[in-house]
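To: structure desk
From: M.T.
Subject: fold request, one chain
Message: Could you run this one when you get a chance? Sequence is below, nothing fancy, just the single chain.
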Amino acid sequence: MIYLDNAATTLQKPPEVAAAMLNALKTCANPGRGGHAAARRAGEAVYQTRALAARFFDMEPEQVCFTSNATEGLNIALRTLLRPGSRVVISGLEHNAVTRTLAGLGAVTVPVTAPLFDAQGWLSAFEAALNPRPDAVVCLHVSNVYGCVLPVEQIGALCAKRELPFVVDASQSAGLLPVLPKAWGAAFVAMPGHKGLLGPQGTGLLLCRAQTEPLCFGGTGSHSAQAEMPTELPDRLEAGTLNVPGIAGLGAGISYLLRQSPALLRRRETQLLQNAVHGLQQLGIPVFSGAAQAGVVSFRMPGMDCEEAADAFARRGIALRAGLHCAPLAHRTGGTFPEGTVRMSLSALSRAADVEQFLHSAREIQAARRRAAP
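Reply: Done. Structure tokens follow.
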């Protein structure tokens, strides 16, 4: 199978990820819950990953909090900042992890829109939406549907000027593009561990530059005599037993990325994306693309339902994703609702041969459609 569904989760991992998870499963107990060797090893494994993530994102280790996925991190951030009736400016590309959380909170959302790959257009749209002053601004870095990159640093500067809390969803950019909460002025940045960071499912990070409210309450291994949750990070957000094997695997994924040249990885992935876009365009297949794009390409096969097209690729050994990608707001903004798109998405381990075979399959599917036409 040629796996090109990395915007959902990376399937291929560096071999050291599985090795780190297995080692932790065999040797690590519960961090912070004992002074014996197995508990100490667990604490060291967790702290090592925390320190690696802090280095990778230019944060302090205590500002790095472990979550089970980006959705949990976004829930913590939004439930910390907002209350029923809070007015929130969001991009018109947000995932259900944001929109459903805001709906559940009873917040008033103000989606802003612009042409998909027009960074200046998005910046102007956000600036216009900040009057009247909202209670917070939420923005993804890269769209999980179209791959368009939003100007989060400039949007963050608009928020800083007005002293507005800024939350960034870096689900599709962490590990691929620079994610710099300090430079962005972000209060919180949430991300999964299982996508660009090459870690296992069930892991995530919330980078915190603001006071937080816990989503879950319970034991932390610290301040056990008090009834309230600890006030300091990361303990405040990490109730219960941590996923130590998953965290160790995430640490191995981040360590792999740190050993590479980030600029080289980005250039390589950009070239693969451009090859895919160019190849689809040469075949006359409608594709959503632009200058500010990273990692993700959405397209539609002429005369085919998106699910039907994805199934045709799957029969040829190409793993893609079709539909609304848990982001109906983005499809409304991009004009692809309710049909959706077919999505091809890359990772740091994608190969040029994968893209070539994907394009070969697209040609085959087109040829089969022509032969079947009456």
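Reply (cont.): The CA atoms of residues 54 and 60 lie 5 Å apart. Let me know if you need anything else for the meeting.
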